[in-house]
Each structure stands twice: as C-alpha cells, then as structure tokens.
Amino acid sequence: MSIPSSTRLALTAGAASVGMAALLVVLKLWALGQTGALSVAASLADSAMDLMMSLAAMAALIYAAKPADEDHAFGHTSAEDLAALGQAIFILISAAVIAFAATQRLLDPNSAALQAQEHGILVMGLSVVLTLCLVVWQGYVARRTGSKVVAADRLHYLGDLLPNIGAIFSLWASASFGMGQIDSVVAIGAAVMLSLGAFRIGKGAFDALMDRRADPDVIAGIAAIAETWPGVHGFHDLKTRTAGSRIFVHLHIELEGSQSLREAHDIGAGLRRAILNAYPQADVIIHKDVAGET
Asked: I want to staple 44 with a disulfide (CB 3.0 to 4.6 A). Which of 28, 109, 184, 231 is the partner?
C-alpha cells in the first residue's frame, strides 16, 4: 500500500520529534549529573515525557496509514489512548518525586550547593534552541498536512520552553548570587506544570476510551455541512466518538424517495467527501433515509 505524501511528511515530523526528545534526554542526564540541580531534573522528566509522547504520536501516525483489519474494524487508534493513560501515571509519579525532593532540599539548610552551573546553562540553552527549531518544522508540517497529531505534539513542545528557561534562570541565580533555593522553587513549579499536563492527558485519554463525543465545534461544523448539502432534505442521529487521533462519525441523512439509487449514492458520497475534507481525521458512515418517513 502506497503512503500518501501528506502522511510521509507527517512521519518526518514524528521522526524529528522522537530524535529531538531522545537527544535532549541524553543531554539533560549529563547536565543533571554535572549540576545536581532539581530544576534540571524536572526538565529531564519533562523531556522523558516528551519522548514517550512523541513515540506514541509516531505510532499513531503509522497506525493511521494502515487500513482496518478483520479483528479491528475501526482501526487501532485506541492504543494511543491506552499509552496516554500510562504516560499520565508516569508523569504524576515523576512530578511527585521531584516536588518531594525539592521541598526537602528547600527546608534543609545544609543541602548541597549546585555545581558546574555553566554546564547546565549550556545544555539547557541548547535544548531551548533545538526545541524552537523543532517547533518551527512541526508548524510547517501541521499547516501542510492538517495533522492533528503533529499539531498537538507541537503545542506540547511549545509548553516545554518555560521549564527549560526556568532551569536556566535558577542555574544562573545560583552561580551569580549563590541563591540555590531558587532551584527548588523552580523545580516545584515545574512539577506542578507536569501534574497539570498529566491530568489533561489522562482525562483526554479516559474520555476517548469511554467513547466521549467529539469536540462540540467539530459536531457543529459537520452539522453545518450536512444541512446545506444539495439534495439533503434533513439529517438526524448525528453521533460521534473519539479514539486516539480519530473521530468516528455516524450520520443519517434524509433524501427524496423517488430518486434513483445512483443519485442517492452520489449525494451521500459527496457529503462524505466534504466532511473528510473539512476533518481529515474523521471516519464517516452515512445512512440514507427517505425524507418524511423517519
């Protein structure tokens, strides 16, 4: 099966995201060993989360390029939600460990001072530059392909810039003024941000596994297309559910009963193409009813 050019382009963004996250994890592990800074540890945990999320996003893009099979008639995208729940749990545990260690250090007057701050600043500064480059590329790919997976991954990396900048500030304050306590404060703030992100990811995954409906704006957009489509006299039973990056849409449309089967088919097929053009991540099933007899 040939892979569409838009999918190949999206896969390049996914591969770049995975490679970048893996590189940042290695760099921050080295920086943590050099400095002992908890703010760097928090940024490391965030990059580890990025790596897992980027791997999940890459898997989702690969799965999206595969057709449904006999055992999975609706595809395999729910695996993305299961992975997201696991990620959310891991993130919460990491955030709790970082916050506990930071609090202990903040309350301990004899805690060890940070070391080799310049090494940490160099690594964190490099991570900011690399992240910005990745965000620019992901933005280009998201605009060209309309991939929601790439767009979501890009949004997450944009959110990573703040903890990285916070780590740079805490290392600079420690090196310049001996204010090592700022490292613990920044680490606690980063842990809170990690926790909020984990709850958001976990809630989204749980909602998808529970067949929660699509975003109301998406539902309204589909309804607007259906109610103005030529040949459609009305519609009902518009139902949606989400699974991973996919939106499954079921829709009943009301057509003139005296027209031929070919004419009815063409109306339904045209409407389905219009919905897919507006929402490429959708999987659409349209049922045809006779107007006035529903």
From this structure: 28
Least Cα distance to 45 among 187, 213, 141, 154 occurs for: 187
Which tens digits make up the pLDDT trace of 71-109? 655 665 566 666 667 767 777 787 787 788 778 777 766
Structure tokens at 81: 């939600």
Sheet of strand 282-290, all strands in order from the earlier edge strand to the far edge: 234-243, 246-255, 282-290
Residue 261 pLDDT grade (very low, low, confident, very high; cuts 50, 70, 90): very high
Both tokens of 51, joined, read 């790596």
Structure tokens at 102: 């930071």
Tell me how far CA of residue 222 lies from CA of 158, 225, 278, in angstroms: 30, 5, 8
The tokens of 75 are what? 């595809």
pTM beyond 0.70: the answer is no
Pair (88, 225) in one structural domain: no
- Identify the CATH number of the domain in which residue 266 sits: 3.30.70.1350
48-63 confidence digits (pLDDT tens): 877 877 787 677 667 6
